[in-house]
Amino acid sequence: MIDKAKQFALERHGNQTYGDKPYAYHLDRVVELLVPYGEVAQTIGYLHDVVEDTSVTLDELAREFNQFISDAVAILSDQPGINRKEKKQKTYALMENVTGDLQVALIK
Question: What is the tens place of the pLDDT at every residue in 41-57?
Answer without folding.
Answer: 999 999 999 998 999 99
